[in-house]
Amino acid sequence: MWAKQILLGVLGLSSGIVIAGGLFALIVELGVIADFADRTHTADRILLYEDCAALGGIAGNILSVFHPQAGLPAFLLPVFGLLAGMFVGCWAMALAEVLNVFPIFIRRLKIVRYTAAFIISMALGRGFGAGLYLFQRW
């Protein structure tokens, strides 16, 4: 019985490590951290940016798994909201830059006349996936 629990724990831990590695690889590939350093003219502190991103990921995992109760002052809530909004905005900016790949991809594969079908199929797939997710939650 306990061997099964240990196996599940090791499997869950290794899966989490793989997912976290993929997320940080995506952050690096999108150039979010390098873009921060470039726009703020602080390229000499890029290792600090990377350490902060890693510590933020670790802290986020700890908060989502253990749900610690901390008696923090109420004035920190707007600060957290501001920082979370900045994070989401930076992700949106980085993902918008990646969207420039689609026109190049479509031209290179010579599927220009199927662009409408391509976009509609992506939208339908996204909608179908969201519907499955909502249906599964009920």
Overview of the structural elements:
The protein is 81% helix and 0% strand. It has a domain at 2-72. The protein contains six helices and no strands.
Q: What is the fold's blueprint, element by element?
A:
Elements: H1 2-30, H2 32-39, H3 46-66, H4 76-98, H5 101-108, H6 115-137
Tell the overall outline.
Answer: extended
Proportion in β-strands = under 5%
Into which percent range does the helicity of residues fall? over 70%
Number of helices: 6
- Give the CA-CA distance, first to last residue: 32 Å
- Rounded Rg: 20 Å
β-strand number: 0
Low-confidence stretches: none
Can you summarize the main beta sheet?
none
The residue-averaged pLDDT reads: 82
Q: SSE order, as H and E?
A: HHHHHH
Broad structural category: mainly alpha
